[in-house]
Write a structure and sequence with these properties.
Helix content is 77%, strand content 0%. By secondary structure, it is mainly α. It has a single domain, classed as Ferritin, core subunit, four-helix bundle (Ferritin, Up-down Bundle), CATH 1.20.1260. The protein is elongated and about 55 Å long. It starts with a helix and ends in a 5-residue tail after the last helix.
Length: 163
């Protein structure tokens, strides 16, 4: 194995976190679908797919480094959101948590002089800047809506956040 056992364990934990993000955003998409906000549902489905891609990317890196990928059980995601604003607020908080975890991985890579992993994680550091920014922009937009009609009118605009 070309990375430390500690690093492999932490990267495996991050795979789990990314799959949980996937699961969480799917649950959010289904909640949006159930309250008739199909544009938001589609946006969250795309976000879920992106998170799954992150998990697969980290798993692929583990394999390239000669480490085992160890999938473990996921917690159940929250499903009982009261409003669109609550969903998006939780998204912002979740992306900030993922950012903190990526930074902890980067700190470990630097501490271990693991230049390959630090280089690999650089993409995730940059990605998290974008993820938090987009989530915050979405929250700012949703806060402007005073009712469901305004949220529905906003749905086409949310896709511009991904451009």
């Amino acid at each position: 194995m070309m990375i430390s056992e500690t690093m492999a364990a932490k990267l495996n934990q991050q795979v789990k976190e990314e799959f949980f993000s996937y699961w969480t955003y799917l649950a959010m998409a289904y909640r949006f679908e159930s309250i008739g906000l199909k544009g938001f549902a589609k946006w969250y489905q795309l976000q879920a797919d992106e998170e799954k891609g992150h998990a697969l990317k980290i798993a692929g890196y583990l394999i390239e480094q000669g480490a085992d990928v160890k999938l473990t059980a996921l917690d159940n995601p929250k499903t009982d959101y009261a409003s669109a604003q609550e969903i998006v607020q939780v998204t912002v908080e979740h992306e900030k948590k993922i950012t903190r975890l990526i930074h902890e991985l980067m700190a470990l890579a630097n501490k271990e002089d693991d230049f390959a992993t630090a280089s690999f994680l650089g993409w995730f550091v940059d990605e998290q800047v974008e993820e938090v920014s987009i989530a915050q922009q979405l929250l700012d937009m949703v806060k402007l809506a005073s009712d469901k009609v305004q949220l529905m009118l906003m749905e086409n605009r949310i896709f511009t956040l991904r451009e």
